[in-house]
Design a protein that fits this description.
The chain is an alpha/beta fold. Helix content is about 35%, strand content about 20%. The chain has one domain: Rossmann fold (3-Layer(aba) Sandwich).
């Protein structure tokens, strides 16, 4: 797939917050780990007073909305996203704060000066970047020498792999984007950062309403031929794997901390 086509697909998927909100909602509703992935991510940030922070791919800004106390001591938070629709959702969600600004930015061409940020954040988005090494080079350029780069991502052995396996006999295959995962991310990041640490988030879904999981599945673009299988068939397959009214679905998420 060409970079141009990939760019168009990503723009289409994230032109509004609808798909993202669908995926967030199932995690909020059925996750075993009640800390929550966003809360866990924030718990691993080391934010010093006066920090200048750049977030790439900020999405709906929900993490910051739930932790607005973090904004008190920082000098500036620059929230950016590739999608104008997503950035508008973040602005609406966050509301006004004097030290928060919003800007449409492509990680492959960050429009800020060298060594300008104490912290750069790029959660759950690096796998979408067509020229990832170019993007990481840009992150390294705008990050201060003693700064930190935080980037959360998924692993290969989570929800999509599990559901694709259950539906394999119907021609459904796992086509999850593998450009940047918990398995290969460290090697990629070490080309640009001298100290790369991986943190793993332990969790699973315990789903009691399969209709919610169906909504999640159809918000994804990670399983080939899924559209050729009737929702009623998928629901029947998933319900057969429920135990005492619960379908347990593995999750694999984590974050890299780079310095």
């Amino acid at each position: 797939m060409s970079n141009i086509n990939n760019k168009e697909i990503v723009q289409k998927q994230y032109e509004s917050a609808k798909n993202l909100n669908t995926r967030i909602s199932i995690h909020d509703k059925y996750s075993v780990n009640k800390q929550g992935f966003g809360n866990w991510i924030v718990s691993n940030y080391s934010i010093k007073k006066g920090s200048r922070i750049l977030e790439l791919g900020c999405g709906t800004g929900d993490i910051w909305k739930k932790h607005k106390s973090l904004l008190t001591d920082i000098s500036e938070l620059v929230m950016t996203d590739f999608s104008e629709g997503m950035l508008k959702a973040a602005q609406d969600n966050m509301g006004y704060a004097p030290n928060v600004t919003y800007q449409v930015v492509d990680i492959q061409d960050i429009p800020f000066c060298n060594n300008g940020f104490d912290i750069v954040i790029a959660n759950m988005m690096l796998y979408h970047v067509p020229e990832l090494e170019r993007g990481l080079s840009e992150v390294s350029r705008v990050l201060k020498a003693d700064g930190a780069f935080y980037c959360a991502t998924y692993g290969l052995h989570g929800i999509v792999e599990y559901i694709s396996g259950l539906l394999k006999s119907y021609g459904v295959e796992d086509s999850i984007n593998k450009n940047f995962t918990l398995q290969n991310g460290k090697g990629i990041l070490e080309k640009f950062f001298r100290d790369v640490t991986i943190l793993e988030y332990v969790d699973a879904l315990e789903v009691t309403n399969i209709d919610d999981l169906l909504d999640y599945i159809y918000s994804l673009k990670s399983m080939t031929n899924i559209g050729n299988v009737k929702p009623s068939v998928i629901k029947e397959v998933l319900e057969k794997h429920m135990v005492n009214g619960v379908l347990k679905v593995p999750k694999e998420y984590g974050m890299f901390v780079c310095k």
